[in-house]
Amino acid sequence: MTEMIALLFLVLFAALMIAIGVYSSRKTKTMDGFLLGGRKIGPWISAFAYGTSYFSAVIFVGYAGKTGWEVGIGGIWIGIGNALIGCLLAWALLARRTRTMTHTLSASTMPEFFEARFLSKRMKVYAALIIFVFLVPYCATVYKGLGYLFASIFPSLGNLIPGVSPEIYCMAIIAVLTAVYLVLGGYLATVLTDFIQGIIMIVGVVIMVVMIVYNPAVGGFANGFSQLAEIDPNLVHPLGGNMWAFLLMNVLLTSLGTWGLPQMIHKYYAIDDTRNIKKAAIVSTGFAIIIGVGAYVVGTFGRLILNNTLPNGNFDAVVPEMLVTALGHGVLGNIVLSVVMLLVLSASMSTLSAIVLTSSSAIAVDLIPVVKPNYQQKHQMIIMRSLCLLFVVLSFLFASFKIAFIMQLTSFSWGVVAGCFIGPYIWGLYWKGTTRAGAWCGMLTGLVVVGGGTLWYVLTCPDGPAAGFTLASSMSQNMGVVALIASVIVVPVVSLFTKKYDQAHLANVFTDLAKTDR
User: Is the pTM of this model over 0.85?
Assistant: First the structure.
């Protein structure tokens, strides 16, 4: 019964996503339309696109499962930090200036922004390569997160083809659906599906929280906290108890990291009017509170639903196992489980489409014109659509490998990409004194800190490279936070002692900002 009900929900969802792709294909005939929706995306849709790109299956499976098991209720601070810092503060400080300056510079991607702001084609190429290399592994974590839940709901799929796990079928569904609506409709299809997926996510999280908290194994908040306190008092400590440092690093990485992730910043480019930014900020913050806090509340009670037994020693299996255990009984429970499946599927597809669009544009818009200048726009559109399809396939193949540390792999990707971009991006928006040398040093910081730190652990660990990589994985959140902070500090320090831009260039970059600041 569980599989039949879930399959019905899945078919209806797939039909809706494909229909949106077909509809949007009629409105994406130009590169500006394909990448930015013509910069005419309203505040509600922009806010939902931002929120759904922010929260993928990783938060429900990787982060909520591990944090809930090890930290307990203190994990909700990650959701709160994501809402207040990653959404509200980010929109307040970055959106208007980004939208205005990228319009002034005719930049539709982050590498194009860096090229125009710092007059460096090499910086554009470097930024595009960072996006291409390090966002594909992030895509893999999106697939893997849903794979665990899907395998629990559809166990019989493992009997179709010997040796092919249910996870592979799940990942194939994500890949096909995302490829169809993204290749057909580009950014417009993405944000329209994001809006619908966002509604599904809100409904799914609210239902999931209620069903888990009032499950007999938990018995409500008061009884649940009492049981957790008996297992370990730190699990009910409001600040994480002895896990406070781990909690703090994750709050900082997942909240500040969005300030330097191109797939998130892209949403500021496309909003229709700077006057709508305040509304988008409020909506995205509310969305983040519901999704972020809800996910970590559910993860908190994983120990109780699973009788304090970690499934196969794997944190990534905690949430899927607890959901199937708690909800996989009776018609109502199976309907709720199907809604939760669509919730995680929606979170996965929205994030995947945002990353694929960003990665594809890094090649089609930022790299190829450097190698082959002035190639025709119709060829650029064909290449862009082809690359979207290619990146979906590549991320699917990458995800097919056995990766058992979703949370750490995400932290590696966020640390490098956001660490490279956050310093040059923020200072480039706000400070005329930012120099090319300062921006370059900031862009190298993320790669040096995270890549160099990982290499150090691998080479110096007395137990060998494999043990060193495992140690580096456990420190991935810390390295990511250091990369973010270092990038923000390095840019102004180097800029103080290096050659400044001439006033004519700065006047051109900041002219429209000066008008809107009045």
Answer: no
DSSP state of 272: S
Apex 500 CA angle, 516 and 448, nearest 5: 95
Contacts of residues 209-213 at CB distance under 8 Å and 24 or more positions apart, as own/partner, are 209/294, 209/297, 209/298, 211/326, 211/327, 211/333, 211/336, 212/297, 212/298, 212/301, 212/305, 212/322, 212/323, 212/326, 213/297, 213/301
Give the number of domains in the chain. 1
The enclosing H or E element of 188 equals helix 166-213
Radius of gyration of the chain (CA): 22
Strands (E), 159-281: none
Q: Is residue 467 part of a domain?
A: no
CA distance 64 to 60: 5
Is residue 455 a part of any domain in this protein? no
Q: Which domain holds residue 280?
A: 2-404
Q: Please indicate, yes or no, if residue 416 is contained in any of the structural domains.
A: no
pLDDT digits (tens, 9 = 90+) for 13-65: 778 777 776 766 666 666 666 665 556 677 888 888 888 778 766 677 767 87
> Residue 17 sits in a domain of what CATH number?
1.20.1730.10
CA angle 442, 446, 449 (to 5 degrees): 115
